[in-house]
Amino acid sequence: MLTAKDIRQGLIGAIRNAGIDFPVHFNHVNNSSKSYIWVELRPQKRNLDSVHFQRILFIDLHVVLVPDTNAEVKHTDLWTIVDKLDTEIMPCIKIKDRYITVQEINPYIFDNILHYEFTLDFTDYIEKENNHDFMEELQINWRDKYGFGNASNTD
Fold first, then answer.
1. What value, to the nearest 5°, has the Cα angle with vertex 89 and ends 92 and 102?
2. For 22-62, what is each residue's pLDDT tens digit?
């Protein structure tokens, strides 16, 4: 099973492999004097059976650049970051020992912040140990409607 920590480390690894050296935060950031990436995760899970479940993670990378001396953020710099992220995240992203296919990426700029959205949709499993004692011998007392069987007839 991929843990939340595994997913966070996989995302940070993909960002670093793309050549982006900004700090990566998973909690909201207030008043930063440096450019950074804030990762918003919205997970969903659905049971498939007793050990397998479907996981869907909606991921939104918010790339926040510090404005230049004219208090501007260059959108060309943000689109360059999109190109770098594309090379690492598409067609698949590595998380721990697994490769998860990314079907679609939706990058856009709003209020001078790059939003790089994609979804991870995969099946995962829960590792369960069987700690139950199994029955070694089963004795059944039965009787049919005519009173025949191995149980004593008390009628």
1. 45
2. 999 999 898 889 999 999 999 999 998 888 999 999 999 99
